[in-house]
Amino acid sequence: MTDYPSITAQLDDPDAAREEGRRKMDWARQHMPILNALREDFEADQPFADQRIGMAMHVEAKTANLVELLADGGAEVAITGCNPLSTHDDVSAALDAHENITSYAKRGVDDDEYYAAIEAVIDIEPTITVDDGMDMVAAIHEDYPELIDSIIGGAEETTTGVHRLRAMDDDGALDYPVFAVNDTPMKRLFDNVHGTGESSLASIAMTTNLSWAGKNVVVAGYGDCGRGVAKKASGQNADVIVTEVEPRRALEAHMEGYDVMPMSEAAEIGDVFLTVTGNRDVVTAEHFEQMKDGVLLANAGHFDIEVDLDALSDMAVDQYEARDGVEAYEMDDGRRLNVLAEGRLVNLAAPIALGHPVEVMDQSFGIQAVCVRELVDNPDAYDAGVHDVPDDLDKEVAEIKLEAEGVDFDSLTDTQEEYMGSWQHGT
Ligand code: NAI
């Protein structure tokens, strides 16, 4: 047992925080038709009665609506953050006030507190885990393997978490089933592309009060997130340069009309650098050497290791806060390189960051919710390992959303269905 305190015990005025957090949650909830539709079913059916759900996610208003949905569906939930800077303490406090929820998430924790909060969540002995980045699954496997037998399964939100899980699975080290929520179309094609694109650019603009128009924006990584960032930056009249290591992705970016070049060339051209690779050491000392005065360096990949801040710090003769959320590193030749949000996910960790738009997260969390329901409904259907989200669940969420948007669409006729399922029809 840990004695790590919940957020309520850590705040000076938890009542005021709760009220503000609830206001934020209510606003988000108005724009989350998928979670609201599921809520009607879950409140009536109580599918999660007897389940204990341990979560490590970005604790802000949209996530809070997922957490509350699971709790209102009967689960006992414990949650903490999945990044030291992305928690909204007021939302965390509002969650902690729910009788079925304990929230340990707090913004600005150090490494020890971050992992102590994860241990506190594990103390509820979860039967289901919901992660963003896989820190919870890792902690359970490394430090509490005795709990694994009673865990039905889990769900993972982000690309980096799914990468880590697949690596663990390949090593035969993943001992319970986990749904790769990230990879399913209803998540990836909207959250990663539109969500990361819109919210990263919005956070950078609001944090710096600078324009995109006419800037050279270097996007490192042309995956789902990179595509979104590049498209939206281009839509705001920036000149986009893409760096890649995967030939097909590099070609795709080239055919979209972006300049593609190595980071060593982009370094001297860029005004803004935004990394979305999920990899490490993407912008390093050799690049800092070449950059222009005043550049912005931001990361939207999961971990804060894409921009080599240690090297930057070593190279700097001075370092100071240029604005809230902007740290300037001054080089000996007078150039200032400006790092946003300490190199952590800029759309979530910048002081005024709001994360993805609500509508996008309604989709991602709709998938999370139906995955948790699936684990409870079919606890023996999935072996240990990483699993794709079943297609019918993905479609279910899409259909709820289309109905809420008032969008009607066609369905196959019997003849078409027969034709599409047949190999005998030729010329
Ligand atoms: P992805 O795997 O689709 O794309 C990553 C791309 O980066 C790949 O095309 C890969 O070839 C490229 N890459 C890898 N190393 C590189 C290097 N050294 N230089 C240039 N390119 C390189 O992944 P996705 O879905 O785009 O996610 C990227 C990261 O963003 C992950 O860490 C993910 O967890 C995170 N993410 C962040 C979100 C946010 O809200 N900020 C939302 C969703 C994902």
Automatic annotation (TrEMBL):
Key word GTP-binding present: no
Residues covered by region (Disordered): 1-22
Cellular-component GO terms for this entry: cytoplasm
InterPro entries, per database record: Adenosylhomocyst_ase-like_sf (IPR042172), Adenosylhomocysteinase-like (IPR000043), Ado_hCys_hydrolase_NAD-bd (IPR015878), NAD(P)-bd_dom_sf (IPR036291), S-Ado-L-homoCys_hydrolase_CS (IPR020082)
EC number: 3.13.2.1
Keywords in alphabetical order: Cytoplasm, Hydrolase, NAD, One-carbon metabolism
PROSITE patterns xrefs: ADOHCYASE_1 (PS00738), ADOHCYASE_2 (PS00739)
Domain S-adenosyl-L-homocysteine hydrolase NAD binding: 192-353
Coiled-coil annotated spans: none
UniProt-listed GO biological process terms: L-homocysteine biosynthetic process; one-carbon metabolic process
GO MF, any single term: adenosylhomocysteinase activity
Cofactor note (record): Binds 1 NAD(+) per subunit.
Main location: cytoplasm
Cell compartment(s), UniProt: Cytoplasm
Protein name as it appears in the record: Adenosylhomocysteinase
Gene: ahcY
